[in-house]
């Protein structure tokens, strides 16, 4: 009974329980990855504080499938070490394009329910970046909450709040100050036992300071961050904690860029304004570039839709398309093949119709 409570407070629910059940092996118990060690994983929810991947998993998982903090795994438990047999399907996954690559996916955080997208009221404030972060969060399957931090600083908030309304339609906004504590209670409204939250945003916007505010002084240890297998003391920082009052917080790595890789409907959700106009385009597959009867272009023309919104929409879609072409060799091959076909058809036509030859 006690273990069940612990599992539920760590975020274990029917989504994961049914997966475990489907595995049909009564030996398996669930555990959540709370930190990544040198060669093993720190676990919570099972008896053993550490777990290792089975050789079979080690050999079969792609880099993006490897367990990360926040993952639920099915293990054969032990006193000291558990054997990780399966990585359960992720409910949400925030992926980004690994820095310096065109299409290499990097897992930022998994199984997060709510992302606090933090921005500060100073020079950091950037509409376009917020737009990108919100689209990425929607794509991950999590829900975004925008946190406008450092409101204690002298700043005119109105223009920023208006900008947020333009780029993050219907996304809740919390004004906060990690310095004074303002808004911290409002953040807690989105946190509850069993729910997982995380912060994302540029470095310096106050993510750590807000985290400390949420943690208060009673940091609750989860999982055993003990000595590793060689008896050395691991210095791995705790990356997943249960907050006082319940709720799980995952510490996401800082990142300079958030390159998009794919679209799982996040673009449509983020650009609901563009999508609404697009429904009135004459052609269903309108690209909103120069087509006749394009309602999106008409909306930009009339000032109903900011031109920057359409520009961002195109930019993010193009970025995703480029990554997808790069990543999927079949797709890339297909588009090349298609061009070959067009060129071949063009040449064939030229043979038949001498007029075209010139
Ligand atoms: P992170 O990189 O996003 O984790 O940002 P930090 O939490 O490390 O904060 C960066 C700097 O901003 C630190 O010097 C903080 O003291 C300061 N800071 C964070 N939140 C606030 C705030 O609400 N108001 C003010 N004035 N400074 C803040
Ligand atoms: Zn159109």
Structural description of this entry:
The chain has 358 residues and is an alpha/beta fold. It has three domains: 14-87, Nucleic acid-binding proteins (OB fold (Dihydrolipoamide Acetyltransferase, E2P)), CATH 2.40.50; 93-251, 3-Layer(aba) Sandwich (Rossmann fold), CATH 3.40.50.300; 271-356, Probable gtpase engc, domain 3 (Ribonucleotide Reductase Protein R1, domain 1), CATH 1.10.40. The protein has helices at 2-9, 14-23, 55-60, 127-140, 157-167, 184-188, 207-215, 266-270, 272-278, 295-302, 307-327, 329-352, 354-357, and strands at 28-36, 41-44, 50-53, 72-76, 81-87, 93-97, 105-110, 114-120, 143-149, 173-175, 196-200, 240-242, 248-250. The strands form three sheets. A six-stranded mixed sheet has the order 10-9-8-11-13-12. The protein has a five-stranded mixed β-barrel with strand order 1-2-3-5-4. It has a two-stranded antiparallel ribbon with strand order 6-7. Strand 12 (240-242) and strand 13 form a beta hairpin. Helix 4 (127-140) packs across helix 5 and helix 11 (307-327) crosses helix 12 (329-352). The chain is globular and about 70 Å long. The model is unreliable at 218-236 and 350-358 (pLDDT under 50). Bound molecules: guanosine-5'-diphosphate (GDP) and zinc ion. Guanosine-5'-diphosphate binds next to helix 7. Zinc ion is lined by residues 278, 281, 286, 288, 291, 294-296.
Portion in beta strands? 15-25%
- Biggest β-sheet, characterized? 6 strands, mixed
Please state the CA-atom Rg, rounded to the nearest Å: 24 Å
Give the bound compounds: guanosine-5'-diphosphate, zinc ion
Q: Termini distance? A: 83 Å
> Tally the helices: what do you get?
13
CATH architecture of the largest domain: 3-Layer(aba) Sandwich
Total domain count: 3
Tell me, what's the shape?
Answer: globular
Order of helices and strands: HHEEEHEEEEEHEHEHEHEEHHHHHH
**Residue-averaged pLDDT:** 86
CATH topology name of the largest domain: Rossmann fold
Q: Superfamily at the CATH H level of the largest domain?
A: P-loop containing nucleotide triphosphate hydrolases
Secondary structure category:
alpha/beta
CATH class of the largest domain: Alpha Beta
Percentage of residues assigned to helices: 25-40%
Walk across the major sheet and give the strand order. Answer: 10-9-8-11-13-12
């Amino acid at each position: 009974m006690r273990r069940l409570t612990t599992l539920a407070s760590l975020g274990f629910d029917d989504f994961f329980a049914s997966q475990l059940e489907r595995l049909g092996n009564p030996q398996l118990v669930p555990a959540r990855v709370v930190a990544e060690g040198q060669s093993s994983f720190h676990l919570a929810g099972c008896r053993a504080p550490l777990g290792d991947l089975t050789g079979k998993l080690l050999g079969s998982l792609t880099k993006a499938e490897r367990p990360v903090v926040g993952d639920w795994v099915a293990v054969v438990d032990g006193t000291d070490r558990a054997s990780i047999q399966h990585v359960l399907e992720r409910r949400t996954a925030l992926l980004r394009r690994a820095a310096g690559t065109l299409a290499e996916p990097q897992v930022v955080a998994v199984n997060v329910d709510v992302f606090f997208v933090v921005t500060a009221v100073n020079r950091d404030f950037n509409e376009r970046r917020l737009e990108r972060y919100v689209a990425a969060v929607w794509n991950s399957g999590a829900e975004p909450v925008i946190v406008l931090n450092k409101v204690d600083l002298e700043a005119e908030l109105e223009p920023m709040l208006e900008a947020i309304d333009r780029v993050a339609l219907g996304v809740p906004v919390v004004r906060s100050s990690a310095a004074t504590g303002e808004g911290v209670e409002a953040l807690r409204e989105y946190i509850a036992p069993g729910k997982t939250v995380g912060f994302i945003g540029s470095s310096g916007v106050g993510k750590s300071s807000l985290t400390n505010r949420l943690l208060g002084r009673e940091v609750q240890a989860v999982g055993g961050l003990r000595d590793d297998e060689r008896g050395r003391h691991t210095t791995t920082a705790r990356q997943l904690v249960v907050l006082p009052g319940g709720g799980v917080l995952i510490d996401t790595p800082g990142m300079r860029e958030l390159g998009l890789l794919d679209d799982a409907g996040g673009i449509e959700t983020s650009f609901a304004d563009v999508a609404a106009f697009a429904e009135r385009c004459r052609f269903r597959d309108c690209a909103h570039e120069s087509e006749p009867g394009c309602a999106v272009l008409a909306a930009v023309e009339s000032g109903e839709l900011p031109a920057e919104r359409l520009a961002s929409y195109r930019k993010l879609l193009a970025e995703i398309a480029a990554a997808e072409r790069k990543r999927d060799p079949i797709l890339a091959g297909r588009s090349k093949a298609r061009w070959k076909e067009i060129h071949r058809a063009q040449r064939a036509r030229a043979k038949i119709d001498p007029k075209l030859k010139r």
